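Justification of resources, computational component.

The compute hours requested in this renewal are based largely on the per-chain cost of generating structure records like the one below. Each record pairs the submitted sequence with a full structure-token output. That output is archived, and it is also reused by downstream analysis tasks.
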Amino acid sequence: MANESTGLVGRKLGMTQIYDNEGLVLPVTVVEVPDNVVLAVKSNDGADGYSALQVGIDPQKSSRLTKAELGNFSKAGVEPKRHVQELRVPEAFASKYEAGKVVAIGDVFKEGSTVDVTGTSKGRGFAGVMKKYNFAGFIRSHGTHEFFRHGGSIGTRLTPGHVMKGKKMPGHMGAAQVTVQNQDLVKVDADRNLLYVRGGIPGPNGGYVLVRNAVKA
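The structure output for this chain reads:
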């Protein structure tokens, strides 16, 4: 079953610290949520068969978009946007909006609630098993040489006689979709369109993230 909690698309600004009501210092990630402009509304009874909102944020030059993309913005009566994303939401929520409207941050989030944040992790390129999987490495004494950071044996002898699928080996690291769940939403600044999420969230500063009300709260 698809995740149909309400949410918005934002941009990770970075981490800082704020004080709570008891004077304790909390590490928080600041997420800017620009105007999420609705481009299309989908319903369970429509051609798509599910309820969702297609939203766009940040202006984009028309020269950098395809004719199909420009046609989508023109149909919605909206200026071209840099980042477009579809949000699966309950039909009761989706029915409140139409193309061209803005989903307000205050209509979605409340201080003190918990959220799930989805983003694209930082790319680390080609990495070995010690960096990628936290392997310990081999002993560094008693004549060991040329075998400090290897992953050890990967074979299975005679039966079945090959490397098993899923074996942890060196390879591409990062640049993948990552979701952190049940993060505390410490503060909602509706005037400046900012969310303060306790702890770290995936991705680099400036990267786009999807912030949803937690489904397992």
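The chain has two domains: 7-123+174-213, 126-165. The first strand starts at residue 7 and ends at 19.
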